[in-house]
Design a protein that fits this description.
single chain; 507 residues; alpha/beta; globular
């Protein structure tokens, strides 16, 4: 009897060992999608609250082709470790070179549970719209770059969405010249994705928070046919400075102005520096019922200290080392205290498919320019263009030094890989939670982050950028599911047979 009990235990252990693995986990890091006024996990349908940081070491205005924040695995491992200390679930990047390989960095971000909001423009001539004369830069070459960025990053599940522009409309001249050109870029991006990309990655716009057209510009981008309207909207707002309240900061007016917005809106930049050091007191309000009925969280400007003085960390570019600043400690404390579980939500009215005849203080021209890249939109880029996919992670602990606020070196800088990244020839694959706990919804910590406005640094004429390396899956999710089912069935049978053998030996 004792032997039989031992045999049973051994058999059970053997079965467990056979069945253990990513496929046995209960949840996964899924792509996010837009549902009414919120981003939701595409599988669990849990609401996703953005806790993010804007991330462009060196500054968006200094970006040059040949390197970007996601092209060096060692730098990525260094900064993703720091993102986890901040408690992020999203980053925003303003400029990338789509011809580079981003697979390992995106895989490591995914394993850490961090999503990416990506601008498709750079400050390089030909990779953005001239805000005052957009007809001079709205070209096939420009859109080729935009579509390359889309191709490069659409294959990653943790690409949350693309920004078609950042603060393109920011004064009286651009408010007349640019709105319908930016909307044309949105249309071109959405149609390209619909025609050529398996996953319909959301497309949005990041706006300078200028009171003269805060409401009218957002209404203009929200309305119209599905293929012309933005899927989400970012607001760059720096109005909460130092010790303030919901009312004294006029966040209450910000909420009122977007109360009837039908799609997700979030703070794509925040973090006023008029009072230093920053305490990020506004974080508690952003993640409160006062804001959550309208806003889906926010992204702090910015990760690295640049000339504009918004940095959370200092990067010593000569040796690649990083040191925390006071703002880093303050933000990590505020994000840790911000509870997103159970936040109040509100239902959305249907998105307006009919636009108004005019919009105050902007030229809300509803006649959009014809696309100069209609053939690319219809047929896609050259099939040889290298698309991104998840790969084996080879660097999860950086070889760069990381120091705390007091100058003490942090010895263990290993990224906590919460999610498995199944390596596949397909680009759209699922990430399985190693711990078997909740996926990407409901504001669990994990992480996120254009060029700054309101005193922040960044490229001036922004709307497009990209050369790509991201690929659509070669097999459907249904096929993958069938393969997983077959593989798991084999495991079950093998475990059962092994258990019977063990039982017979010791019976």
């Amino acid at each position: 009897m004792r032997f039989f009990t031992t045999a049973s235990a051994l058999a059970a252990t053997a079965a467990t060992l056979f069945l253990a693995g990513p496929s046995a986990a209960a949840s996964s890091l899924n792509p996010l999608e837009v549902q009414g006024k919120y981003f939701v996990d595409s599988v669990t349908k849990e609401t996703f609250w953005i806790k993010g940081v804007d991330y462009q070491p060196g500054g968006a205005a200094n970006f040059q082709d040949g390197s970007d924040p996601l092209s060096d695995p060692n730098s990525c491992a260094r900064d993703i470790f720091m993102f986890q200390q901040l408690g992020l679930n999203t980053i925003r990047i303003y400029s990338v070179d789509p011809t580079l390989n981003h697979d390992e960095c995106m895989s490591l971000l995914a394993s850490a549970g961090i999503y990416l909001v990506l601008d498709v423009n750079t400050g390089i001539y030909g990779q953005n719209l001239n805000r005052d004369e957009p007809w001079t830069t709205y070209t096939e070459a420009y859109l080729t770059h935009v579509f390359q960025v889309i191709e490069a990053f659409s294959g990653y599940n943790n690409t949350l969405g693309f920004f078609a522009g950042n603060e393109v409309i920011n004064d009286n001249v651009s408010a007349i010249a640019s709105p319908n050109y930016v909307k044309a870029v949105v249309r071109d991006m959405k149609t390209y994705i619909s025609n050529n990309i398996i996953r319909q990655v959301p497309v949005g716009y990041s706006a300078a928070d200028v009171l003269d057209y805060r409401v009218t510009l957002s209404s203009y981008f929200e309305c119209g046919p599905d293929d012309e309207a933005v899927d989400f909207y970012g607001v760059n707002s720096y109005q909460w400075c130092g010790d303030q309240t919901f009312n004294s900061s006029q966040y209450n007016i910000l909420v009122e102005d977007y109360a009837n917005f039908s799609i997700p809106v979030f703070l794509s930049e925040f973090g006023c520096i008029q009072v230093l050091p920053r305490t990020f007191q506004e974080v508690g309000t952003i993640f409160s019922d006062q804001m959550s009925v309208v806003f889906s969280g926010g992204i702090v400007y910015e990760y690295s200290q640049e000339s504009s003085d918004y940095g959370l960390v200092n990067i010593t570019y000569s040796d690649g080392s990083v040191q925390e600043r006071h703002d880093f400690i303050a933000l990590s404390s505020e994000y840790a205290s911000a509870t997103t579980s159970g936040l109040a939500t509100a239902s959305a009215s249907p998105r307006p498919t009919t636009c108004a005849s005019s919009y105050g203080n902007i030229d809300g021209n509803l006649t959009l320019p014809d696309s100069p890249a209609s053939s690319l939109i219809a047929n896609g880029l050259n099939s040889t263009f290298n698309r991104g996919k998840y790969v084996d992670i080879t660097v999860s602990s950086t070889n760069y030094s990381i120091y705390d606020l007091n100058g003490n070196q942090i010895t263990d800088t290993t990224v906590n890989e919460t999610y498995n990244v199944p390596v596949s020839s397909d680009s759209a694959i699922q990430l399985t939670d190693k711990n078997g706990s909740g996926g990407s919804g409901s504001g669990s910590s994990g992480s996120s982050g254009s060029s700054g406005s309101s005193g922040s640094s960044g490229s001036s004429n922004s709307t497009g950028s990209g050369t790509s390396s991201g690929s659509s899956p070669s097999s459907s999710p249904k096929s993958a599911a069938v393969s997983n089912l077959v593989r798991d069935s084999v495991k079950v049978c093998a475990a059962a047979i092994f258990a019977v053998i063990i039982g017979l030996i010791f019976a």
